[in-house]
Amino acid sequence: MAVNVDIVYKTVLLILNKEQRGYMTPDEFNKIGSQVQREIFEAYFEDLNQQVRIPQTDMEYSDRIAITDEKIAEFKTTSVATHTNNGIFTLPSDLYRLGSVTYSPTNTYPVELQRVGRADFYNINKSPLTRPDTKHPVYLYEDNKLLVNPTSIAGKIDVQYVKKPEDINWAFTTNSAGAYIFDNNYPPSVDFQLHNSERTEIILKILLYQGIVIRDPQIIQVAAQKVQQEEVNEKS
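The structure assignment produced for this chain is given below.
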């Protein structure tokens, strides 16, 4: 469930205009909005790491690990790695965190590949007991590529992964007076891909950055306090 980019932009403009704190152009909004989205997205993984150390409630809709994982789920996807040569597979360009990797031999169930480190990958063939085969394949993940062993595997490799968020875009045209008018057609607008529950934090963080851009300490102070309070409420 995405966050509508037009609603966020108009809300930010409404707050700035109401407080007579200047204006934010579409280009500024798109750049700042994309930065804010990346910050919130990248914080999910540290939040999840922190939450697993804390006892969780078993009440429905209140498990914070499940809530954070639900936010990350907006970016979970599956794709097919592209085979190049000699056991090398190129991964999708939008990959952020790699999950499970499976190989699908003809007429059999998928086989999950085991991830190994560089030393193990190059030494694993030395012993017949540890040598990989098509039933027990392994892979090394480096430079957005998979090095698969045995190299005879050239078929379908499926990867489950968390993808990077796209940069947002408030698409527009201008009217005869030069005013910006939202236009969802060309170039196409791109919504925030974050969970809909993040709309308030998105708006506050954009206001925080805009306060820095126009050097307004009051906007910075108020927005920073509200962002901090939102984060405390989520983690306490």
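Interim note for the steering committee: The chain is about 40% helix and 20% strand. Helices lie at 5-18, 26-51, 64-72, 118-123, 199-213, 217-235.
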